[in-house]
Design a protein that fits this description.
By secondary structure, this protein is of the alpha+beta class. The protein is 37% helix and 22% strand. It has 13 helices and 19 strands. A six-stranded mixed beta sheet has the order 10-11-12-15-16-19, with helices on both faces. Strands 1, 13, 14, 17 and 18 form a five-stranded antiparallel beta sheet that branches. A four-stranded antiparallel beta sheet has the order 6-5-7-8, with helices on one face. α8 packs parallel to α9. It is globular, with a radius of gyration of 28 Å. It starts with a helix and ends with a helix.
Length: 438
């Protein structure tokens, strides 16, 4: 008996010690002073012992630490230095200072997707497929797209020197380009312009490239132009739209919904993030048929629009499953001009459908081949086709748009069915039957 009692006491002491130690470790992890002491110690050791520490400033080290900290949270949270924060602000305001070259990485090489018409890059003769080898003397090999864009952007009137390799003739050429104010059309027609001419089938087409400050207003102007021409149905293209401002997504949805309709719900740790956002406008199309085009590059605000209109059966969603970014990033400016982009909430469709890491599954699935997708991106980029050599233009233009064509067929079928369907019988209130019969 004594042995059992002693064993029980020993076990009790051991468990108590383990709990105490675990609590102490947990408390240490939550102690801000101890953690800041550790950070300060590491900061000073780097300054003192790093081989090139004399080239570093405290700001360099703190900015690097903040970038690392935010990057460990999720793919969409980040620390933005003052320069990058300004670029973000410019990107949502419809204009930026730059040379007008849309670039991306292809096989670790910075490649021109397309120059924007009448911009410095376009006027200099830089064309789709050209490779930017150097920017201001810095090699672009393995340079990130964000870093390249940062170097190409700048105040209008300033100069940037770039070295370009032309695969067409295998020549390398140096350019000194004077940056200009580059307008960003976030609402375009099928020709990447802003004419919004209605086709003979009376089906309108509007593409949203991004959700910026003026997207909703520009969409309304586009719809008005098309309605004046007798539009009977609309295709809203959200393909390759990475998103943007949450409130703009709500305003875009409101163009196709009755006032007071729930659009999206956001939920976060802070009670202030728990909001239900409603449509504040009215249906600009007056119940005309609507098809929304999406693909894997449709993300964030694009998915809010597609998910909402699908949930409420206001539109047919056609294309491929979307990216699946169902989180809200808040921009938190800092005192020195930098900012935190921090994930603070997740959003849900009106029926509380989860989008994050799932995406929006189209009502009608129509996939594109890689070659079709590449050709369409060039066709839909301002100046994209014009920038190609003549022999390449015909090849790119030979590709159709199966998703757009299927959308047109769907809308034609809906219109045909509507025209042939019998008119709904008019309801007559009780007591008015005789008067109505007369």
């Amino acid at each position: 008996m004594y042995g059992v009692i002693l064993a029980a006491l020993g076990l009790n002491l051991a468990v108590g010690a383990w709990i105490f130690q675990s609590s102490a470790v947990a408390a240490e992890k939550e102690n801000p002073y101890a953690s800041m002491k550790l950070f300060s110690y590491a900061l000073e050791r780097v300054r003192k012992d790093y081989v090139d520490g004399q080239k570093l400033t405290y700001q360099d080290l703190v900015y690097g630490a903040l970038k690392g900290m935010l990057n460990t949270l999720d793919p969409h949270s980040e620390f933005m230095d003052p320069e990058k924060f300004k670029e973000l602000q410019d990107g949502t305001q419809g204009a930026y200072g730059g040379v007008g070259l849309i670039v991306q990485l292809e096989d670790s090489q910075l490649t021109v997707v397309a120059p924007i018409t009448n911009t410095p890059g376009y006027k200099a003769g830089i064309r789709t497929g050209d490779r930017i080898v150097k920017i201001d003397g810095t090699t672009t090999l393995n340079m990130s797209t964000d870093e390249a864009v940062r170097l190409l952007h700048g105040e209008p009137g300033t100069t940037v020197k770039i070295t370009v390799f032309h695969p067409a003739n295998e020549e390398t050429q140096d350019y000194a380009l004077t940056r200009a104010l580059i307008p960003v059309n976030m609402v375009t027609d099928i020709n990447a312009g802003t004419d919004f001419t209605l086709a003979d089938n009376k089906i309108g087409y509007v593409r949203l490239t991004q959700f910026g400050d003026k997207t909703s207003d520009n969409l309304e102007l586009a719809i008005k132009k098309l309605k004046k021409q007798g539009m009977q149905a609309l295709i809203l293209d959200l393909r390759w739209n990475p998103g943007g401002l949450l409130e703009q997504a709500v305003d875009v949805c409101a163009k196709f919904l009755p006032k007071g309709q729930l659009v999206v719900t956001t939920e976060g740790r802070d009670a202030a993030e728990n909001k239900r956002r409603y449509a504040m406008g009215h249906d600009e199309l007056e119940d005309l048929p609507l098809v929304v085009l999406v693909n894997l590059s449709s993300a964030s605000a694009s998915e809010i629009v597609a998910g909402c209109l699908q949930d409420l059966k206001r539109a047919i969603i056609l294309g491929e499953t979307t990216f699946g970014k169902g989180s809200v990033q808040s921009i938190l400016p800092m005192e020195d001009g930098s900012a935190l982009r921090l994930t603070t909430a997740k959003y849900f469709t009106p029926s509380h459908k989860v989008i994050h890491k799932v995406g929006i599954t189209p009502d009608v699935v129509v996939a594109l081949t890689p070659k079709e997708e590449e050709a369409l991106r060039i066709q839909r980029t301002p100046g994209g086709v014009e920038s190609l050599p003549k022999n390449e233009r015909q090849r790119v233009l030979s590709y159709g748009d199966p998703q757009f064509e299927r959308a047109v067929d769907l809308l034609k079928g809906i219109r045909l069915f509507t025209e042939r369907a019998p008119a709904p019988e008019k309801r007559v209130a009780k007591g008015e039957k005789v008067a109505a019969a007369r």
